[in-house]
Amino acid sequence: MIEDAQREFFAKEGYLLIKGFYDFDTDILPILRDIHRIIGLVAERHGISLSREEFSPERFDDGYPTLLATNRRIAGEVYDLVKQIPSFLRLISHPKAEALFRDIRGTDHAGIGAASYGIRIDNPNEEKFRSHWHQEFVFQPQSIDGIVFWTPLLPIKPDLGPVVILPRSNLDGLCTYVRGTTYAEKAGAYQIGIHDEDAVVARYEHVAPLTDPTDLLIMDFLTIHGSGYNTSGRSRWSVQGRFFNFRDPIGMKVGWRASITAGTEVEAIFPDNFVSAE
């Protein structure tokens, strides 16, 4: 599905941007329509009047800033509900995506981890829930040769905070992590960070690809990456899915565990890769 040069680039650099991987009308547009409808339904449920025009792909999220400004918990309902729409689930399990994963990893048995997919809504100037530097395998311990599939739902410009990737970091194995130091003020899994993060991050180049809906950005489960800072006036909407290889011996050893957000205790799985916060 990809050229040999792309395959080699992914293996070496730990990421690959594939332009126009999905079809806009068939794959992306239905998701945008459903998000627009859900925003309206949540507003109706809470008696909030929205001043917005009819649906358009460019402004599919009209009304969401009003919900966010009114009550963050109400906006949180949108965050939870958009992960339940069939159009989104079809994209996550798209036959092309599965075929690409199988092709790259040379496996006949791909999986999608429990609680490993969603639609992120990164609001402007909000740090608490921003995804900081991490490797996916620590948070998604299904197989060490897993791949993140990332697609934006609006054009990603520099001020929206593109994904920042550290090329070739995948070649250096799993980092050492710590909970409750640099990110102690964050919630849940967001408290886990790379030990001696500044020194680790400084060893690598930083790249932040600009992407459009239909583009697919894939990242190795060991590639260090994080969300950029959204300094725009609009939320950044993106789709994340994660495939893993059932035949990976490390995944088999740990039992293809679910996402940390599903309650998996990663410190118990990776005791040699965690240090005490003291």
Fold blueprint:
Layout: H1 4-13, E1 15-18, H2 24-45, H3 64-70, H4 72-81, H5 86-92, H6 95-105, E2 110-112, E3 118-122, H7 136-139, E4 147-152, E5 163-165, E6 177-179, E7 192-194, H8 197-201, E8 216-220, E9 225-227, E10 236-245, H9 249-254, H10 266-269
Q: What can you tell me about this protein's structure?
A:
This is Phytanoyl-CoA dioxygenase family protein. Keywords: Dioxygenase, Oxidoreductase. GO terms for molecular function: 2-oxoglutarate-dependent dioxygenase activity. InterPro entries: Phytyl_CoA_dOase-like. This protein is an alpha+beta fold and 278 residues long. The chain folds into 2 domains: 4-22 and 109-273, q2cbj1_9rhob like domain (Jelly Rolls, Sandwich), CATH 2.60.120.620; 24-93, no CATH class. It is 31% helix and 16% strand. It has 10 helices and 10 strands. Strands 1, 2, 3, 4, 8 and 10 form a 6-stranded antiparallel β-sheet that branches. A two-stranded antiparallel sheet has the order 5-9. Helix 2 packs antiparallel against helix 4 (72-81), helix 2 packs across helix 5 (86-92) and helix 3 packs across helix 4 (72-81). The chain is globular. The N and C termini lie far apart (48 Å). The mean pLDDT is 94.
CATH superfamily of the largest domain: q2cbj1_9rhob like domain
**Structural class, from secondary structure content?**
alpha+beta
CATH topology heading of the largest domain = Jelly Rolls
Described by strand count, sense and barrel closure, the largest sheet is: 6 strands, antiparallel
Number of E strands = 10
Unreliable spans are none
How big a fraction of the residues is strand?
15-25%
Total domain count:
2
- Round the Cα radius of gyration to an integer and report it: 19 Å
Q: SSE string, helix = H, strand = E?
A: HEHHHHHEEHEEEEHEEEHH
- Share of helix among residues? 25-40%
The count of helical stretches stands at 10
Quaternary state, please?
single chain
- What's the CATH class of the largest domain, please? Mainly Beta
What is the CATH-assigned architecture of the largest domain?
A: Sandwich
Average pLDDT rating: 94
What general outline do the C-alpha atoms trace? Answer: globular
Q: How far is it from the N-terminal to the C-terminal residue, by CA?
A: 48 Å
Protein name: Phytanoyl-CoA dioxygenase family protein
Pfam families: PhyH
Keywords: Dioxygenase, Oxidoreductase
Organism: Paragemmobacter kunshanensis
